[in-house]
Automatic annotation (TrEMBL):
InterPro entries recorded: RibonucZ/Hydroxyglut_hydro, RNZ2-like
Localization per Swiss-Prot or TrEMBL: Mitochondrion matrix, Mitochondrion nucleoid; Nucleus
Cofactor(s) it depends on: Zn(2+)
Gene3D superfamilies the record matches: Ribonuclease Z/Hydroxyacylglutathione hydrolase-like
Subunit text: Homodimer. Interacts with PTCD1.
Protein name: Zinc phosphodiesterase ELAC protein 2
Family listed: Belongs to the RNase Z family.
EC numbers on record: 3.1.26.11
Record's keyword terms, sorted: Endonuclease, Hydrolase, Metal-binding, Mitochondrion, Mitochondrion nucleoid, Nuclease, Nucleus, Phosphoprotein, Transit peptide, tRNA processing, Zinc
GO biological process: mitochondrial tRNA 3'-end processing
Signal peptide: none
Phylogenetic classification of the source organism: Eukaryota, Metazoa, Chordata, Craniata, Vertebrata
MF term (GO), any: 3'-tRNA processing endoribonuclease activity
Naturally occurring in which organism (per UniProt): Naja naja
CDD domains: RNaseZ_ELAC1_ELAC2-C-term-like_MBL-fold
Length: 588
């Protein structure tokens, strides 16, 4: 059992819970229970009740007719067999080829003929002569679907569409997304029907066995830009934006500038089509990076942003800061660690454990995975976040060494943390580079005086703005910040610029923001990349962004109006009841 099999499970269970699915069945090896439910939590099972219909009675023209099941059903057909098989590496090939259960489906017996075999199998296994011979032994009437690293199809088409439209506004800040093609070697060839998997490819088993490709993605950036240009005021607002900039927006090929901030996930709670959950990459130099939080799907976001450069970027990550232990901030960590280890081997680099700054409780989760699935602890050097607080007592010798290594590797003059107002053991952080720049990251928090003190005179504040103005009570209940509260923190901090992120997924495309937003404030989008030199340009993007998402903004403003009216009625009702009681007259 490894992360490739169980990595999405926790996120899926949380999503099922949010959608009010009452029960769920988990089936797997014994370690699955230990991994998912270390505290002896129990999950109920879906109860499936199947009733066989033998006959119906129908009243027609006053006559009670008996209709038998065979009159309703199509003629009986042999059961359709399909097999889903995972062979993760060459060490499993002999076990697969010699498996007696699978062997009986290779015989020339029509009742045992296999319609489809799904191979979750790396290319190295497919090219092995033993596996190839076994695969071809099923004959020409069996279809084979390959799911592995050679999949070249686009995923998350909505993200690509939005990014193409944003790229038209500013090509440097919103670069086009890339597609990751990890293998450049020739694929294995077979004498039987073999199909490489694609996103939304379907195989129909009944009534006719056939591939269905009508739902496959067709990525066409020019078409998406043309759609945007049809929107009222969009083209004019983009032109006005470009004219307001001192020069025409630079292309993505512009000379590198550092630090470079790449927003990989700017939503909260659960991943959505447009915004993934929390993750921000700070590229300190061409060879050193720090990752701030690591929510579910962070590796996929890196692949879409960097394409074939993904292994190089993974090797560049020197440290990861995890602000707190909520699923939207840490469940992508294991895949990043595993993929980084693979990338180091692929690039021919020596084993180089990553420095992990996080609440100590995170180690419980890592130990659980290490003990039940696969080796992971050798990929990290743990620095408890509380050891980086101001005047902290670092009583573990190893931690002192790791902190010194963090400063040296990243050329930091200071890396400091502070506790913030969210859940227990939630932290924000501040990074001060030797060249003088200072980046502060809030994590999840309500307005926090300690964060303000730590972040004084920051070059950039990245602050959560989960909720819109007017939802202060809900923000307190959920221990988050509103847009204006986040901006106020930045002003009190005297930050040179403020980037807002971690928006509620109710603002899937764009959050509501004040009309008098400061020239020092920007709204983060997934795959947005900014340098300090872009701070003057970012506020000027608001006009075309409002034109691009005008329908969404109108809908959100309508919801806000209804909410404010409801609040007003709730506030007035007690007063009306009081007046009615004293005047002994009902106004209702």
């Amino acid at each position: 059992m490894n992360w490739a099999n169980v990595g999405g499970l926790s996120g899926m269970l949380l999503t099922l819970k949010e959608t009010r699915v009452p029960k769920c069945i988990l089936s797997g090896p014994p370690q699955l229970v230990s991994l998912m439910f270390p505290s002896l939590l129990k999950c109920g099972l879906w109860e499936i009740l199947i009733k066989h219909v033998y006959w119906w009675y129908v009243l027609t023209w006053g006559i009670l007719l008996q209709i038998l099941a065979e009159e309703l059903c199509t003629p009986p057909e042999p059961s359709v067999v399909f097999i889903v098989l995972e062979c993760p590496h060459e060490g499993f090939i002999d076990a697969v080829c010699e498996n007696s259960t699978l062997l009986r489906y290779q015989q020339e017996n029509p009742e045992n003929s296999v319609a489809l075999i799904v191979h979750i199998t790396p290319d190295s296994v497919l090219k092995d002569s033993r596996y190839k011979q076994w695969l071809e032994s099923f004959g020409e009437n069996t279809q084979h679907l390959i799911l592995n690293e050679n999949c070249k199809s686009i995923h998350h088409l909505h993200s690509y569409r939005i990014q193409s439209q944003l790229n038209y506004i500013h090509p440097k800040i919103f670069p086009l997304l890339k597609n990751h093609h990890p293998s450049k070697e020739e694929e294995a060839e077979f004498s039987v029907p073999v199909t490489q998997g694609e996103c939304l490819l379907k195989y129909q088993l009944r009534p006719k066995r056939e591939w269905q490709k009508d739902a496959l993605f067709n990525y066409n950036p020019a078409e998406y830009v043309a759609e945007a240009l049809q929107l009222p005021d969009f083209q004019d607002s983009v032109q006005t934006c470009h004219e307001s900039l001192s020069v025409k927006p630079a292309t993505s090929e512009t000379q590198d500038c550092y630090p470079e901030i790449v927003f990989l996930g700017t939503g909260s709670a659960v991943p959505m089509k447009i915004r993934n959950v929390s993750s921000t990459l700070v590229n300190i130099s061409p060879t050193q990076s720090v990752l701030l939080d690591c929510g579910e799907g962070t590796f996929g976001q890196l692949c879409r942003h960097y394409g074939d450069e993904i292994d190089k970027m993974l090797c560049n990550i020197a440290a990861i800061f995890v602000s707190h232990i909520h699923a939207d901030h840490h469940t992508g960590l294991l895949n990043i660690l595993l993929q980084r280890h693979r990338a180091l081997v692929s690039q021919g680099e020596s084993h180089n454990p990553l420095l992990l700054v996080a609440p100590t409780i995170l180690m419980t989760w890592l130990h659980q995975y290490h003990g039940n699935c696969q080796e992971i602890l050798g990929h990290i050097k743990m620095i408890p976040a509380q050891f980086l607080k101001e005047n902290a007592n670092v009583f573990k010798p190893n931690a002192k060494v790791y902190i010194e290594s963090l400063m040296e590797k990243c050329d930091f003059r200071e890396f400091q943390t502070c506790e913030v107002r969210h859940c227990k053991n939630a932290f924000g952080c501040s990074m001060v580079h030797k060249s003088g720049w200072k980046v502060v990251y809030s994590g999840d928090t309500m307005p926090c005086a300690t964060l303000v003190d730590m972040g004084k005179d920051a070059s950039l504040l990245i602050h959560e703005a989960t909720l819109e103005d007017g939802m202060e009570e809900e923000a307190i209940e959920k221990t988050h910040s509103t847009t204006s509260q986040a901006v106020e923190v930045g002003m009190r901090m005297n930050a040179k610029f403020i980037m807002l992120n971690h928006f509620s997924q109710r603002y899937a495309k764009i959050p509501l923001f004040s009309e008098d937003s400061s020239e020092k404030v920007g709204i983060a989008f997934d795959h947005m990349q900014v340098c300090f030199e872009d701070f003057d340009a970012i506020p000027k993007l608001i006009l075309p962004l409002k034109a691009l998402f005008a329908d969404e903004i109108e809908e959100m403003e309508e919801r806000r109006g209804k909410r404010e009216l409801r609040y007003l009625k709730e506030a007035i009702l007690p007063m009306r009841l009081f007046i009615a009681q004293h005047l002994k007259y009902s106004y209702f």
